[in-house]
Amino acid sequence: LGGDNFAQDFLQACNERRAWHGAKPLELNSQISRDAQSWAEHLVKLGTLKHSDTKLGENIWAQRGPPQATAWYKEVDNYDFSKAGHQERTGHFTQLVWRSSTEVGVGKASDGKGLIVIVAQFSPAGNITNRGYHERNVLPKEN
User: Fold this and answer.
1) Which of 39, 66, 91, 137 is 20 to 30 Å from 129 by CA-CA measure?
2) 60-100 per-position pLDDT tens digit
3) Going by C-beta distance under 8 Å and a sequence separation of 6 or more, which residues neighbour residue 116?
């Protein structure tokens, strides 16, 4: 996930993983992408990671080296589908595959020294902790 087609490559990788869990493909939203890009650039300047005040779902990733936005999916290993509701260390995964989310915007920024920050914002937001929401929106991987 590098180069000029980052947003499209990111979208394709997200939608592939969503399909594994019975979620419809996300559509790339240009306004949300502009907002995500601004936040990624802001975080690089701050030199720290923190969530914005957006009302959208938000995943943030930082690393040195080539970006791997799909690393959020690895949290699936921490998710117990037999338990109901929110679970620790799974929020990036659950937002990624959240069935009710229909749009995403993504931004990527670098400090020029190898640090890359990726911000993805999802609409409508996922990870709603009300009873029954996780069960309806985070489905086991289909075979």
Assistant:
1) 39
2) 999 887 666 678 999 999 999 999 789 999 999 999 999 99
3) 62, 63, 64, 65, 66, 67, 108, 109, 110
